[in-house]
Amino acid sequence: MKYEGYKIGPVIRDIRKDKGLLIEEVAAKTGISVSTLGQVEQGGRNLSMKNLYMLMEVYETDANSLLAIECTPDSLDSRLKRLPADKQDYLKKTFDFMIEQALKSA
């Protein structure tokens, strides 16, 4: 999958605005500079994994929404939703732990 900032940036901006947040508020909550956030929203800068994860937390949304990825029947999200709730929960917690470890080492 190719990162297409010109498509993703406006989606990220729309999510921020839908949440009623100013870019300065997001910068304060994430530690990402206003300049970097502006460049990401304009499609001129790629979004790092670390910044993606921080935006997911602030916007209370998933990566697919931020990256404008549509759910297809064979997507990871669709496949996960077909599992029993306890297995979904286990895998989500495992993945969350893995992301936390990756952020610590970034």
UniProtKB/TrEMBL annotation:
* Residues of the HTH cro/C1-type domain: 12-66
Give the source's domain of life in one word.
Answer: Bacteria
Q: Name one GO molecular function term.
A: DNA-binding transcription factor activity
Record Pfam families: HTH_3
A GO CC term assigned to this protein in UniProt: cytosol
Keywords attached to this entry: DNA-binding
The family database entries (PANTHER family) matched by this protein are listed as: HTH-TYPE TRANSCRIPTIONAL REGULATOR, METHYLPHOSPHONATE SYNTHASE
Record's protein name: XRE family transcriptional regulator
From which source organism is this entry?
Answer: Dorea formicigenerans
Tell me the classification of the organism that encodes this protein.
Answer: Bacteria, Bacillati, Bacillota, Clostridia, Lachnospirales
